[in-house]
Amino acid sequence: MFTSNPFAELSASIPPAVMQTYVVIMIVLVVAGTLIDVVHKGSAKYFFDNWRKSKGKGSRQVGGGELMSIAVKTGLVDVLTSGEFCNARRRLAHLLTMYGFVIYVVTTAVMVFAYPTPATPTPAIVPQLWWLGGLMACLGGYWFWFFIRVDVAAEGNSPFRVVRADLFILSLLASVTLGLIWAFLQARGSSGANVLFGLYIIASTVLFGSVLWSKFSHMFFKPAAAFENRVSHAIGSRSNLPAPVDKPETFGSARERPQHY
User: Are 92 and 140 in contact (CB under 8 A)?
Assistant: First the structure.
C-alpha cells in the first residue's frame, strides 16, 4: 500500500489526461486567486509604500551585501524554520503541517504527471514520501486545531467552533485526510473508495479554489513581510511587525519575551 501509486491505479477508470488537467486547473486557481487577492486588498501597494516610508525614516543605509545577508537570514529563519513563532509547540505544529503539505503536493504532482499509469512503474520512494507528507500534515494540522489555537488553548472555546478564517486549515486537513483514506481503501479494494475519491476532489477544489477567501495566499506574503521587517530594523526604522526572533522586542519588563500562540 505504501509503495504503490494510487493515481496510477485510478487510471483504469479515469484517463491520466483528466487528472493532469485537474492539477493544472488547481495551480491556475492558486495563482489567479493570489494575484486577485494582491490587487483586491492592495497588499503589494501597501508593502512598497511601507518599504519607502521605512527607508525614509531609517538612520542608516544598507548595501547590497547586507541586503543579501538579510534575505538569506529571512529564508533560513522566517521561512524554512518559522522563526516568527516563539511558542515552541505552535512552531513545531506549523513546520509539520507546512513541510508535510509541501511534500504531499509535490509527490502528488510527480505521480500524476511522471507515472500516470501502471505501465510506467513508480519508484517506491515517491508514494512513501506521499504518505509521509500527508501524515505529517495531518499530525501538525490536527494538533494545531484541537490543542494550540488561541481561541481553544487560551480562551477556552470549543475546538469545533468554526469561523471564516478557518477555511484554509480545515480544507487542507479535509483534502489530505480524505486523500489518505481514499488511497487506503483503494489499496484494499473497498467499494467505498470511489465515494472517498469524490469527497477528496471536492475538498481539494475548495482548498485550491478558495485562495481569495482563505489564508492560503498568506504563505506567499509572509516572506516578503518578514524581509521588509528585518530591513527596517537594520536601517533603524520602526516596522509594523514584531522584531525578528533573534532580536525580540521586550514588553512589560526587560526579561519578558513576547508570547505568540
Answer: yes
Q: How many CA atoms lie within 13 A of 17 on its CB side?
A: 0
Query: pLDDT for 157-189, tens place per residue?
Result: 666 677 777 888 999 999 999 999 999 999 998
In one-letter notation, the amino acid at residue 88 is A
* CA-based radius of gyration for the chain: 21
Short-list 153, 32, 36, CA closest to 89:
153
Half-sphere exposure of 114 (CA within 13 A, CB side): 12
Q: Give, as one character, the DSSP assignment of residue 188.
A: T
* Grid cell locating 67: 541586503
Residue 251's DSSP bridge partners are 253
CA 179, CA 207: separation in Å to the nearest integer? 13
Handedness of CA 193, 184, 107, 96 (dihedral sign): positive
Distance CA 93, CA 138 (A): 10
Query: pTM above 0.85?
Result: no
Picking from 7, 36, 68, the residue whose alpha carbon sits closest to that of residue 201 is 7
